[in-house]
Amino acid sequence: MNFSTSEENYIKAIYHLQHSTELVTTNELAAELQTKAASVTDMLKKLKAKKILNYEPYQGFTLSEEGRKVALGIVRKHRLWEYFLVQNLGFGWDEVHEIAEELEHINSPILIEKLDAYLSFPKFDPHGDPIPDINGKMEVTKQINLIDLELNREAEVSAVGSQSTELLELLRHKNIGIGTVLEVIRKFSFDNSIEIRIKNFPPFSISQQLAQTLFVNPVYGSTIVGSIS
Amino acid sequence: MNFSTSEENYIKAIYHLQHSTELVTTNELAAELQTKAASVTDMLKKLKAKKILNYEPYQGFTLSEEGRKVALGIVRKHRLWEYFLVQNLGFGWDEVHEIAEELEHINSPILIEKLDAYLSFPKFDPHGDPIPDINGKMEVTKQINLIDLELNREAEVSAVGSQSTELLELLRHKNIGIGTVLEVIRKFSFDNSIEIRIKNFPPFSISQQLAQTLFVNPVYGSTIVGSIS
DNA sequence: ATTAAAATTTAGACAAATCTAAATATTTTT
DNA sequence: AAAAATATTTAGATTTGTCTAAATTTTAAT
Ligand SMILES: [Mn+2]
Ligand SMILES: [Mn+2]
Ligand SMILES: [Mn+2]
Ligand SMILES: [Mn+2]
């Protein structure tokens, strides 16, 4: 089965929304795609007819098994192209999302397999998100939100929770990227800001909003103040 | 000004048709795009309104100066992507046209400039066609049609006149590609077939139809039987 | 349990791109 | 120069994707 660019954008958006809330609602999807609820309803009917969706009027919806496979295929294309743009063409990680948003709709399975091989089968995109393989399988990372990282525990930034230009611009300014090793020095309850230190740099503080979009992997064996042995 | 995929396909097709006949006609364009004359007329009005076309009803049409620039931009994208697909991803030169037909519509000037640099600014695509630079300038080759090549004059295949799968499949079977050095041994007036020899291989003959789609550059200083000095 | 608010769907309209069939203009043949 | 053939345009319909406004359903509040 083939899908239009518009259908693909809906399918991918539903896939992403399902990660937070199991059952997706019409308004959520309309907000995500910056369109109107009525347009969403129209597309829901269409996708249900194509057996991509489990959907009953007024009851919310989820992707069918088939729909999930389609979504993973689009995510795979998106993230492989992003990897190519950053690693090969020299784009910054904050410049590639819009372009990948177009490239993900190029329809050529053989192209994607050759691209994947050319890139040596990368497992993560420039934002730390896992790239599904041709069967839809991808690495699961046991990453945690920076908010939940214990004090004085070194951790490596593994992913960011949004691709907005504004966020990526801020991260660039603060010299935080995928792979950055940092630790949390203090947490301030007044505004939930936290003070962090990047390895070999002076500490500085970041807002709660920023901390919430950062995901990290604690570095194995790093010093935990007060821990025994 | 921005253009839809459909508008871009029309603009590029008109550009290509103008190479053979200065003034393009509605039916020619309809045949080229495999659509109906009525659809073409609709689009002609639209493109004229956007000042892309010189067009008066019933009188044929040509691209305006602006239209030519737009066309060259699309051709540039198409050929750069083809070059990438063959040189970097390992596609055969007969497999890339359809994919480039999609990729040429990705809208990101910076992407194309970075791709061009990544490929080291190639001057010709895998079919021997010149790649316009960012200003629309491209190398002009003094290539001639194989039909017009004098006997026993070595020449290098520089371009093919069509990207049809059928043609490229036949060329592959006969081991003819861009860069192949060959000479014409005999011409048969019965069916206008010609006998050629690829360097270091036994001679064989090709049909008139095939010879007409091949363009060659005579090799400088090659032996011309019967020529003086 | 009603009422009010919010979410969702339906109805009807619109723009883009296409098509078929009919009308009109141009070119070619007699 | 008229008739026939061909090319092109117009008229009206269709599909896809979108929108606004109205109707309906669900959820939350009194
Ligand atoms: Mn997209
Ligand atoms: Mn990404
Ligand atoms: Mn195209
Ligand atoms: Mn080409």
Summary, kept brief:
Two copies of one chain form a homodimer. With 229 residues, chain A is α+β, with helices and mostly antiparallel strands.
Distance between the termini of chain A: 58 Å
So, the CATH homologous superfamily of the largest domain in chain A? Answer: Ferrous iron transport protein A (FeoA)
Specify the structural class of chain A.
alpha+beta
**Low-confidence sequence ranges of chain A:** 223-229
Number of helices of chain A: 8
- Main β-sheet description of chain A: 6 strands, antiparallel
> Which strand order spans the largest sheet of chain A, edge to edge or round the barrel?
3-8-4-5-6-7
Give helix % range of chain A.
25-40%
CATH C-level label of the largest domain in chain A: Mainly Beta
Task: Identify the CATH architecture of the largest domain in chain A.
Answer: Roll
Radius of gyration of chain A: 20 Å
- N-to-C SSE string of chain A, H for helix and E for strand: HHHEEHHHEEHEEEHE
Q: Averaging pLDDT over every residue of chain A, what do you get?
A: 93
Any idea of the CATH topology of the largest domain in chain A? SH3 type barrels
Strand content of chain A: 5-15%
Number of domains of chain A: 3
Which distinct ligands sit in these coordinates?
manganese (II) ion
Largest interface, chains and sizes:
A-B, 18 and 18 residues
Protein described:
The structure is a homodimer of 229-residue chains. By secondary structure, chain A is of the alpha+beta class. Chain A folds into three domains: 5-63, Winged helix-like DNA-binding domain superfamily/Winged helix DNA-binding domain (Arc Repressor Mutant, subunit A); 75-134, Orthogonal Bundle (Arc Repressor Mutant, subunit A); 144-218, SH3 type barrels. Helices cover 40% and strands 15% of the residues of chain A. The first copy, chain A, has eight helices and eight strands; from the N terminus they run αααββαααββαβββαβ. Chain A has helices at 5-20, 26-33, 37-49, 65-87, 97-103, 109-118, 165-173, 208-212; strands at residues 53-55, 61-63, 144-145, 155-160, 181-187, 194-198, 204-206, 214-218. In chain A, the strands form two sheets. In chain A, strands 3-8-4-5-6-7 form a six-stranded antiparallel sheet. A two-stranded antiparallel sheet of chain A has the order 1-2. In chain A, helix 2 packs across helix 3 and helix 4 crosses helix 5 (97-103). Chain A is globular, with a radius of gyration of 20 Å. The first copy, chain A, starts with a helix and ends in an 11-residue tail after the last strand. Chain A binds chain B through residues 85, 88-91, 95, 98-99, 102-103, 106-108, 110-111, 114-115, 118, and chain B through 85, 88-91, 95, 98-99, 102-103, 106-108, 110-111, 114-115, 118. Residues 79, 82, 125, 127, 129, 163 of chain A line the site of one manganese (II) ion (MN). Chain A binds a DNA duplex (30 and 30 nucleotides) through residues 4, 6, 25-27, 35-43, 46, 57-58.
